[in-house]
């Protein structure tokens, strides 16, 4: 019969070891340790904890379970923490040192006088001209006579907004169909012209792209995107609280940095890191996620991105709220040097955490532990017996627990309120999105840029003009104003065609009685005609003639 291992419970194994005869031992003292740690703890975290063999084992107490106030602890990264007691029902509130002025900047106030101008504060004429030049350059690779004016490009964008407002469901081509017709779209441009512009839409010069991609994965959109984010920062000054969060723009295009995020409604897309004003949901800055970089040290990305996002808004006494991806003790110290505080959650795998904070087994439900490292406090709260929440804050001078049954500390209450800025801004942008089917990731990024620009323009327009229009009505007016210049061009061209047709009709009354050979092409010199071109006055045969609509005497 093969040998089988038999497992014993802790109590059974203890009894079994006590029954072992002395003659069966090697003469040494038999000792064993029972692991009473929390079974729900992270296995990877347990393997990373460094134990000191010279220090005596620490007794675990399941009553209060925590060390006394004033005890000092050293984390794995060398950070020194001092435990403190959480206050209860204190009326003291953390001070505010905010010295900035929230709202539109002077530049935006001077410029914003209409819906269109609020949009052009963010996507300016220079950006539109760049997109136009790159699009024309791409189209003329196959059609040398292809052209596009900046007014027609704005009309193209207006078609996207018109569909977002009037028909959010369905394909883009349905806007020209008989069953789902949108009159404003059909009046602006034909379906074939829209498709032609979309096929050739480009945002950079293709001739130099291969060289730029070697150092910048975002090269196809980096120039336009950087100018957009600069305009966002230059047009609006955020309030005291800024939320740094991640946005996932849903798309399934082939892209080297497409990401899968299971916690989002649309799990696949291009990720952006955003800095958002908590009060107005204005997106102040945004950076795309371009994938992993093996040469970058671990942990450097999150701190570098967070500092890059909030760099234009430092030194004014603001507070930055982050999630566990960005929050770190070093980031809190760097922000404090720039007169900016930090509030964010941390994971239990962080090396900055003091050893008692990891001990979940010795913590009661609804208990709060506070640790201090300089001007930064760490709140350890247990909402359940098997779950622990870590909140790092340089914003609160004192941690105060509530008087309700859950004893929730003020650091967690404030974080739950302030963390919603990024999610709310993402929901605002997605409500009336111009996103439609595409196979090219630069176009998908362009859709996201239009959504964020429209959401920010609405904030600017309300703040500068005091308007109370709904956002849907604002987008409708934006679509109409974007196409206004192109509609005037179309009206002028139609009037010119009518004038030419009238002149051609008038010339018919003065036709000569003789015919002569065609003077346009050599291979038509045997064709004879009495008709002349109204511009160059050359005799033109039927093959060389551009037929126009006739105008009667009454309409002349």
Automatic annotation (TrEMBL):
PiggyBac transposable element-derived protein domain location: 122-458
Pfam families: DDE_Tnp_1_7 (PF13843)
Domain of life: Eukaryota
Span list, region Disordered: 21-74
InterPro entries: PGBD (IPR029526)
Family annotation (PANTHER family): DUAL SPECIFICITY PHOSPHATASE 26, PIGGYBAC TRANSPOSABLE ELEMENT-DERIVED PROTEIN 4
Protein name (Swiss-Prot/TrEMBL): PiggyBac transposable element-derived protein domain-containing protein
